[in-house]
Design goal:
Helix content: 25-40%
Radius of gyration: 30 Å
CATH superfamily of the largest domain: Glycosidases
CATH architecture of the largest domain: Alpha-Beta Barrel
Structural class: alpha/beta
Largest sheet: 8 strands, parallel, barrel
CATH class of the largest domain: Alpha Beta
Strand order of the largest sheet: 2-3-4-11-12-13-15-16
Distance between the termini: 36 Å
Number of domains: 5
CATH topology of the largest domain: TIM Barrel
Length: about 950
């Protein structure tokens, strides 16, 4: 979609000038702090990025492998993390990595006196370094322990089916019950079941030979045998003292007992309350596979839903042939069952965990998603904790149809930020850079791309996954649990601080500002629960566009939040706006929703009647999802929606399946939707691009805009403006902490030119008193620095330096003696200048980061590519000396070390064939003027 305000004349001028510098002005320009005529409302906010607070700096998940910890090593590792730029740690006790050969056996036991003392010591040492400390609840996940009583452990129902052909007596052989498992119910269900009342519950139980005798079934039936199992799932990777069966998270008494056991043990080490040393207690993703029952579920179900679930069990958990007319009834029972489980989970676990955290004076940090089920509506689950947390994986793209370079970033993070916005949470975090399929090959460039995708999704704090407790004497690579290889052995570890500063400054800005969204999106969660129960896979993928369209809106200058029915019913509607707890939306988009609770349908009608804008995409709501008063409520839902349409709600065809995976077309489709229904972008973007995404904030009525070009190779240019604006555009540089004012065009907009993976933070503030602008420079001449390069390659892990001369520059991995080189390659070159009329140095292609000096003067570090280094004042007439230090990843070295079991384990987990990666300086290296 083109914005008619902007004309093409300026772009033609820019093209005629060559490659424009505002490439320098927007990318590497050293701005200055300015004094405003009018006192800037953003003055204090700007100052905060000079030295961000610890809560804005990335934390490290600190794997305490096997609890093999001692005070000396704790202090050493904390100092390393602090020096790298960390603001805190999440202490995560866990079993020793399974691939470690001959692991030590003397680790500390979780909650033992000696372990608690180590926690206290680590927290105190962190505090001395101005670092904050979080602590995971339990050890491993989901939490539990060998100390639990059987009735406190995880419970679930399993279903076994067997054909029975009548008539006549039958003897059926069934499987023998396993340990911690017993038969719960046995049903005979007629094939082609027409009425629930035709299901027969049997009193028989298997005899000593595991046989069941059945008398005279007159029709073809299926035998459905339901077993109940307890304690069937063990804590995954639990450390000693916290291993054993998983807790029953639907049992409030057991949850309180477990949590109090932890706080009772730790509180004395923190002057009576965990909060005297620990910032937050963290609960990892809820991976309760098979947990679909708790002891009092039948009575709770009947109390909440008004009927018994027992007659429906046989058809809810098994694949029974039923008459099509019965499907609706079964789906309603499945919805009610899912809703009851979700209510119990929220009341008995999430609410309890949240309350326990506050009683112990710590923040509650929680991941509401899980595997393979989502035990709550995600919006509701993410509105409870003080710090809602999503997740992010590298080299594992997940379910979204809009995949970017194998980075998973969209679904959980967007729900975490939506819940955080609706609950007015200051910090919204992400378990960032989880990596099990690319350990040793992630670059800082890749980490920046992933970090920006987190920010675009509304995240404002990163918990990096992770730093492994591993003493130096263990050798390379040490004890590697999970995650990107954040370790002092890594080649890029000395340069990590640049990435950390960049992330910290952005996080500081976003934490101190309020999110802005224009559109609320309601998805079909009740329909998913009706059809599939709490299974997360259809939630993630149906309708196909639900978790991609927010990105298409982002590229078109509109920010969105996901909401649920509860938000709709509690919102207020005035002057066409949809308001909830400080968040305000111009429109509500309802995506392929067939089922609505009656209060939600009624509120939708009220919103339309208050002048609100509603767009129904695809399916129209026409029924209630559950069993209660279904005929009456079906009619009321349908009539409410019809009245809403008559009052002005819009109906639009959902995007076609052929757009799936084509973000460029989806961005265009969304742009047309915005134009057709006159939605109001927060940012007017002339040339939307699927790889240029944005997120919006406000601070004391001053808009703050963050843009990121998330493409690794594409240069993106566009024009942007802010509607109804009377302030100047300022570019704040999160890499340097400096700022400068941007030149506006005659229509009050600015030109934005972003190199691959470059981002831009734009603040709207008062103009400075001198009204100065950065100097715009176009490239008039280039000089390639060709010829011999002196090269010294210094390996990171082992081996001595290798020296050679290169002409021309080439990929080091193509050279036999450097094929498996990982470390620092130092390139040196002398060149003679007759004139110093150059303003920049460009390196061309680099694998993977570069540090540059000219004549002994440090020009900076290019840690994510395409940087133009300013050379003004550093060049001299006559002879000049250039030194470029290039650092590649550890991958090429690790490929040569497959006899190392730890390395081999992680290389075997790569999704693609493991090949050597390009390395070194490829160029062309050139001066520009």
């Amino acid at each position: 979609m083109k914005n008619k305000v902007f004309q093409s004349s300026r772009r033609g001028f820019l093209k005629s000038a060559g490659i424009l510098l505002p490439l320098l002005s927007l990318s590497g320009f050293s701005g200055t702090q300015c004094t405003s005529k009018k006192k800037s409302a953003l003055k204090d906010l700007y100052r905060s990025i000079i030295n961000p607070a610890s809560e804005a700096k990335p934390f490290f998940r600190w794997w305490w492998n096997g609890n093999q910890v001692n005070k000396k090593e704790i202090s050493r590792e904390l100092s390393l993390m602090k020096k790298a730029g960390a603001g805190g740690i999440e202490i995560n006790p866990i079993a020793m990595p399974q691939q470690v050969v001959d692991p030590p056996k003397d680790g500390l036991e979780w909650l033992s006196d000696s372990w608690c003392e180590m926690i206290r010591y680590a927290v105190q040492e962190a505090k001395k370094l101005d670092m904050q400390a979080d602590l995971i609840v339990g050890t491993g996940w989901p939490f539990g322990g060998e100390f639990l009583n059987p009735e406190e452990t995880i419970q679930g129902l399993t279903f076994e089916e067997q054909d029975v052909t009548g008539p006549g007596p039958k003897v059926l052989k069934v499987e023998k019950s396993k340990e911690l498992e017993e038969i719960f119910r046995i049903y005979l269900v007629p094939k082609g079941l027409k009425k629930i009342e035709d299901i027969v519950e049997l009193d028989q139980r298997p005899d000593a030979d595991n046989q069941i005798s059945i008398d005279d079934p007159y029709f073809n039936h299926q035998l459905v045998l339901i077993r109940i199992k307890k304690g069937f799932r063990e804590v995954f990777r639990g450390a000693p003292g916290g291993a054993g069966p998983v807790l029953d998270h639907f049992n409030a008494g057991a949850v309180w007992k477990y949590l109090n056991r932890m706080s009772d043990k730790l509180n004395p080490y923190f002057e009576g309350a965990l909060g005297n040393g620990i910032r937050a207690v963290f609960c990892d993703s809820i991976e309760l596979e098979g947990a679909n029952w708790t002891t009092d579920l039948p009575s709770e179900f009947e109390k909440r839903r008004g009927y018994s679930i027992m007659p429906y069990l046989a058809v809810l958990g098994s694949e029974i042939e039923v008459d099509p007319h019965l499907n609706d009834l079964i789906q309603r029972a499945r919805y009610d069952y899912s809703l009851t489980l979700a209510e119990l989970f929220q009341e008995r676990f999430i609410d309890v965990f949240h309350q326990w955290c506050h009683e112990n004076k710590v923040l509650c940090r929680y991941q509401a998603y899980g595997h393979p089920w989502l035990y709550t509506d995600l919006v509701s689950g993410y509105m409870i904790p003080d710090i809602p947390e999503g997740d992010q994986w590298l080299y594992n793209p997940g379910w979204s149809s809009s995949r970017i370079d194998e980075i998973r970033y969209a679904i959980w993070n967007k729900y975490a930020s939506s819940g955080g916005h609706l609950a007015n949470r200051k910090i919204i975090s992400s378990e960032a850079m989880t990596n099990t399929s690319g350990v040793f090959k992630a670059t800082l460039k890749y980490l920046k791309q992933a970090a920006d995708l987190n920010f675009i999704a509304g995240i404002n704090h990163l918990v990096l996954h992770g730093y492994n407790y591993s003493p130096p004497e263990i050798g390379f690579p040490g004890w590697v649990q999970y995650g990107t290889y954040f370790n002092e052995h890594n080649t890029w570890w000395p340069y990590l601080s640049g990435f950390m500063e960049y992330v910290s400054r952005l996080s500081m800005i976003f934490q101190k500002s309020a999110a802005v969204s224009q559109v609320a999106i309601l998805g079909p969660t009740p329909d998913i629960w009706r059809k599939y129960g709490l299974d997360r896979n259809p939630f993630n993928t149906e309708p196909w566009y639900l978790h991609s369209i927010w990105q298409a809106f982002s590229s078109n200058g509109i920010a969105i939040d996901f909401i649920n029915g509860s938000i709709v019913t509690k919102a207020s509607f005035k002057n066409g706006r949809f308001d909830y707890n400080g968040m305000s939306y111009d429109a509500l988009m309802i995506c392929d929703v067939a089922s609505l609770e009656m209060p939600v349908a009624r509120s939708i009608l009220q919103y339309v009647e208050a002048g609100g804008k509603i767009i129904f995409l695809g399916t129209l709501p026409s029924q209630c999802p559950g069993m209660a008063n279904k005929e009456e409520l079906n009619s009321l839902v349908k009539s409410s929606i019809q009245r809403a349409i008559e009052s002005g709600a819009h109906i639009e065809k959902a995007p076609d399946e052929n757009l799936k995976g084509n973000m460029e077309q989806l961005v265009q489709w969304t742009g047309n939707l915005i134009e057709n229904y006159q939605l109001k972008p927060g940012i007017i973007i002339t040339d939307p691009d699927p790889y240029l995404m944005s997120v919006q904030f406000i601070h004391q009525q001053h808009p703050l805009l963050f843009f990121s070009n998330v493409h690794q190779n594409k240069f993106i240019t566009t024009d942007i403006s802010i509607p109804s604006r009377n302030l100047a555009y300022w570019r704040w540089d999160p890499e340097t902490g400096l700022r400068h004012k941007l030149r506006e065009d005659s229509m009050g907009g600015i030109h934005l030119a972003l190199k691959p993976l470059e981002s831009a933070l734009i603040a709207l503030d008062h103009p400075d008193q001198d009204d100065t602008f950065p100097k715009l420079r176009s490239i008039g001449k280039e000089w390639n620095l060709e010829g011999n390069w002196e090269l010294e390659c210094i390996p990171k892990i082992e081996g001595g330096p290798v020296s050679l001369t290169l002409d021309p520059l080439t990929d080091l991995s193509s050279l036999d003696n450097l094929r498996n080189f990982s470390g620092t390659a130092i390139y040196k070159k002398s060149f003679v200048l007759e004139s110093t009329d150059f303003f920049g140095l460009e390196l061309g292609l680099v694998y993977d980061l570069a540090e540059v000096k000219i004549n002994g003067n440090m020009l900076g570090v290019d840690w994510y590519g395409n940087k133009t280094f300013p050379v003004n004042g550093y060049l001299v007439k006559g002879k000049n000396e250039l030194e470029i230090r290039v650092v590649n990843t550890l991958l090429n070295y690790c490929i040569s070390q497959k006899q190392n079991p730890e390395i081999e384990y992680w290389l075997d987990r790569y999704r693609d064939k493991v090949n050597t990666a390009p390395a070194g300086l490829i160029g062309p290296v050139k001066l520009i003027g």
